[in-house]
Specification:
single chain, about 800 residues, alpha+beta, Umud Fragment, subunit A, Protein Transport Mog1p, Chain A, 5 domains, 8-stranded antiparallel beta sheet, about 30% helix, elongated, serine-type endopeptidase activity, EC 3.4.21.89, Pept_S26A_signal_pept_1_Ser-AS
Length: about 800
């Protein structure tokens, strides 16, 4: 038998069940208004109640059922019996009354009324309720919409597939991209809304975008240029300068070398060689970039990118190993404005007379993602500017004493001030990446001069009898330190390889370069022959049309024997006996620049002929020259052959032969054959500006038609004047760009605008002649249409940007690392 406690528990359970169980009977009796239904509800209110669910569950269920009932009554009232409607409304009112007592409402009563409302809806309005399948589908749709919204507007995960952003990002990194940072992009479109509410894209941001050449691919790069910026980058990508929108000057992107870190391989943490890390700062961002030294380019040229409105310029942090804006190209047919107006055309039709003028195609400036239908070319007349000139001379083991060469160079170019590298550098002296101070300290004795438009420096190589002369215009070397730093660069390169020629000793200088006569032209520039023994025989040294300067060689040759204007300096600095007689130039047929020098080994005749540009140094010993008269006679024989040798460089050896020296045997050259001892580099300073320029723009098959495009361009001109003879419609205007002609070529669906500045086109007629030449060429597509041309496509449309890369969330070694 059950004990008393068990009996009490059974009675309590029965009482609870009776109190919480609805009165039996069919549903109609409950909603029909009979006393049995009302008594049942009254019993619920009075009897003991216990809710079977949690408070939150009960409240949520009641709220959802109330909303559903209200929706059904609003939409389907006409299909439900009036008495049922009244019962549903009464139940809703009862639920609302209980809920109004929160937080102390009767949860059991609320649960019962909710269940009662659910039963009413099930019995009388099931046609209007959602099925389980519909409810599931709606939940899935809502989840998808929410996921798409989050993915499109807030965050999206990406995986990095390559090392183009190393060291910032590595292949295999998983990142989160903030898609709300730059506004909200409407899904499946390129339209961005709300961008004006926030700061927008900044220089230095790391962004994810659809690759402009194949929008099915996503790329990640760093923003370098914003709309309106002008970016200048050298071929090696190590020098980046930005002229911001509205600014006048370029600013170099700040960068410092990281000495205590090594580059890592793209697919492992193993360090690699031939790679350098730098810390770069661009606006508010500081980050690391790297350069592969094994991919280094020696091309000194620059490219300029003018970022158009609505576009960006991007680069990878793995600078010279990244497929980024600087590398993107497309291939196809394209129109070229240079085909309508070439350099020969401009030379033919303008008043260019100076032979040193050159015309430059401004093709290194990229202004748009070209579709092949547009092209623009600007020619600039290049005018020489001595104040921007630069010259380097290297005298390697010259046949005249090196000290005599040093003194002659200093004297002839006015470099009479003896100074030091530290003095020239002044406060700018200090160690940098190129170790300029270390190499500058090796320069030793220097001779310096500062003239009105130029400066001169004569110095020695530290480990060899090699003499250098550096000449620099004041606009290139504004301060002595500019000249000294270039000299240190020469010594650095010379020590790296003494065989480097002048072009390799001094690199990366802007301007047109000239080198002559070249290291391999010894036989046509210089002659040296020996006959008989060293001290009593005959020796000739002769120079034909020496680029290094007749006066420099003449004075050096005299100084070598302790004669001439440099004799005191030579005797003071170089232990050389005063062996020569230097009383006067020889009054003979040799002319005013001939000297006869007597010494213990015989006679030396130094003869410079400015008319023939020849110099001979003839040493004649006692076996051939018994007297001064014999030496002069032999020198006169040599001089008589100057005109023939000057005209025919291959006959230089005929200046003196064995028959001239009485049959003395010829001696072989001293030492191994070498190239010409004098090496030379000149960088011609030039001026390029718009005052001497012509600009031509061409467009074929313009969108909207030729007439509409012509009219739109016409509106941009200032007071256009109709002209005849340049096609059916043509206009002229005197604009800030010069004489401007605008015309169409309907035969080839072409629109042309030509503007010529006064420096090249002083009058309207000259500019018209250029326009007529361009129109004539525009009639034949063979002139201007190029097939299969590779065109740069550097710019990323703003609408292609998906968002800003913010954090790395995997792998664990880089978990939640901020992306700089």
């Amino acid at each position: 038998m059950p004990d008393d406690d068990t009996q009490h528990a059974a009675r309590d359970e029965a009482a609870t069940t009776e109190a919480t169980t609805p009165v039996s009977g069919d549903a109609n009796s409950e909603v029909s208004g009979e006393p049995q239904g009302r008594n049942a509800r009254a019993n619920v209110k009075r009897g003991p109640r216990v809710s079977r669910r949690s408070a939150g569950h009960v409240r949520s269920g009641a709220r959802m059922l109330s909303r559903e009932a209200a929706r059904i009554l609003r939409k389907h009232r006409a299909r439900i019996d009036a008495k049922v409607i009244a019962e549903i409304e009464a139940t809703l009112a009862e639920i609302e009354s209980i809920r109004s007592q929160r937080p102390d409402e009767d949860l059991a009563a609320l649960e019962f009324q909710a269940e009662h409302l659910d039963e009413l809806l099930h019995q009388h309005a099931s046609f209007a309720r959602k099925s389980a399948l519909r409810d599931t589908i709606e939940n899935i749709v809502i989840a998808v919409v929410v996921a798409l919204g989050v993915r499109s507007c807030i965050y999206e995960p990406f995986k990095i597939p390559s090392g183009s952003m190393m060291p910032t990002l590595r292949a295999g990194d998983h990142i989160f991209v903030n898609k709300f940072a730059y506004g909200v992009q409407i899904p499946l479109t390129t339209k961005v809304v709300g961008e004006d509410w926030i700061s927008g894209i900044q220089r230095g941001d790391v962004i994810v975008f659809r690759f402009p050449l194949d929008e099915s691919d996503d790329f990640i790069k760093r923003v370098i240029g914003l709309p309106g910026d002008t970016i200048r980058v050298n071929a090696d990508r190590r020098n980046i300068a930005i002229k911001r929108a509205g600014a006048d000057k370029f600013e170099t992107v700040a960068r410092e070398k990281i000495e205590d870190e090594k580059c890592q391989a793209e697919n492992s943490t193993q360090t690699i060689e031939n790679c350098t890390l730098y810390r770069e700062t661009l606006d508010e961002h500081t980050y690391q970039v790297r350069y592969r030294d094994d991919l280094r380019s020696n091309d000194p040229s620059f490219r300029t990118f003018e970022v158009p409105d609505g576009y960006l310029l991007v680069m990878g942090d793995n600078r010279n190993a990244s497929h980024d804006s600087l590398a993107w190209t497309v291939s196809g047919d394209t129109v070229t404005a240079a085909g309508l107006l070439s350099r020969p055309d401009i030379r033919d039709l303008t008043a260019i007379e100076n032979e040193r003028l050159e015309l430059h195609d401004d093709g290194d400036t990229i202004r748009s993602n070209d579709d092949g239908h547009h092209d623009e070319v600007r020619y600039l007349a290049e005018r020489s500017d001595p104040a921007r000139d630069l010259t380097l001379e290297a005298w390697r083991a010259p046949p005249i004493d090196a000290r005599a060469i040093f003194e002659s160079l200093a004297a002839n170019y006015g470099a009479t001030e003896t100074t030091t590298f530290a003095t020239l550098m002044g406060k700018q002296l200090g160690a940098d990446d190129d170790r300029i101070a270390e190499y500058g300290a090796k320069l030793g004795e220097l001779r310096y001069a500062k003239h009105e438009a130029t400066s001169e420096l004569v110095f020695w190589a530290p480990t060899a009898d090699v003499v250098f002369r550096l000449h620099c215009g004041v606009k290139r070397c504004a301060k002595p330190a500019d000249l000294a730093s270039r000299a240190a660069q020469v010594i650095k390169s010379f020590e790296a390889n003494p065989d480097y020629d002048a072009r390799e000793l001094l690199t990366y200088e802007y301007g047109r370069t000239q080198t002559y006569p070249g290291r391999g032209q010894r036989d046509t520039r210089y002659l040296e022959r020996r006959f008989g023994s060293e001290h009593d025989g005959v020796r000739i040294r002769a120079w034909r049309a020496p680029h290094e300067g007749l006066a420099v060689l003449r004075d050096a040759a005299l100084a070598e024997y302790g004669a001439g204007p440099l004799a005191p300096a030579m005797q003071a600095r170089y232990e050389l006996a005063a062996l020569a007689s230097t009383e006067a130039a020889v009054a003979t047929d040799l002319g005013p620049q001939a000297w006869v020098l007597e010494h213990e080994h015989g006679w030396t005749v130094v003869h410079a002929d400015e008319d023939e540009q020849m110099l001979s140094v003839l040493d004649c010993g006692p076996k051939r020259c018994k007297s001064r008269t014999d030496a002069l006679a032999l020198a006169t024989t040599v001089a008589s052959r100057f005109p023939v040798v000057n005209k025919d460089r291959d006959r230089l050896s005929e200046l003196l032969g064995q028959a001239d020296v009485g049959g003395l045997p010829e001696q072989p050259p001293v030492g191994p054959p070498i190239g010409y001892f004098w090496d030379h580099l000149t960088v011609v300073g030039v001026v390029l500006d718009d005052s001497h320029s012509v600009n031509i723009q061409v467009e074929i098959e313009p969108e909207g038609g030729l007439e509409a495009a012509l009219e739109a361009r016409k509106q941009e001109l200032r007071a256009p004047e109709a002209v005849e003879g340049l096609g059916p419609v043509a206009w002229y205007a005197d604009t800030p760009n010069g004489h401007t002609f605008l015309f169409s070529v309907p035969e080839t669906k072409m629109l042309v605008e030509l503007a010529c500045r006064p420096g090249l086109c002083p009058d309207r007629e000259t500019a018209r002649a250029l326009a007529e030449r361009a129109r004539e060429k525009g009639l034949d597509p063979e002139n201007y249409l190029q097939k299969g041309v590779s065109r740069p496509r550097p710019f990323v449309p703003r609408g292609n940007v998906k968002g800003r890369a913010e954090v790395i969330w995997w792998p664990s070694t880089r978990f939640w690392k901020n992306i700089d």
